[in-house]
Amino acid sequence: MTRNLSQTLFGLILTWGLAAGPAFAQDHGGHAMPAAHGATTAAPGSPSQAYMAAMQTMDSAMASMPMTGKPGLDYARMMIPHHQSAVDMAKAYLASGENDPVLTKLSNDIVASQQAEIATLQDWIARNEAK
Q: Would the pTM of this model clear 0.70, i.e. be above it?
């Protein structure tokens, strides 16, 4: 189930990135875009703010990562911030104190599985980066 969730999350993030790409490419001259109708700003220190910070960190890391032209290496390097974002979001949920049994189990599973996958990716990179 966690693997399917990871694949689904990756697909959603990729779709969002492709759809949002042209909007980010436009020069808005420093003007802030109005918030969507009904959108709220996450309160500082709130879980929602932590979720947004995790996504912003991931987006920044992935956008600034130079591509090597080596498909495996580029994939492995890009997946680390993607998985770290999932870990950070899951930990923020766990720290929220809400304790929904389904989301708590899912969050614990995500932390364990994604940290293991990050370690696998880091090991793979260390063995293959110089090739």
A: no
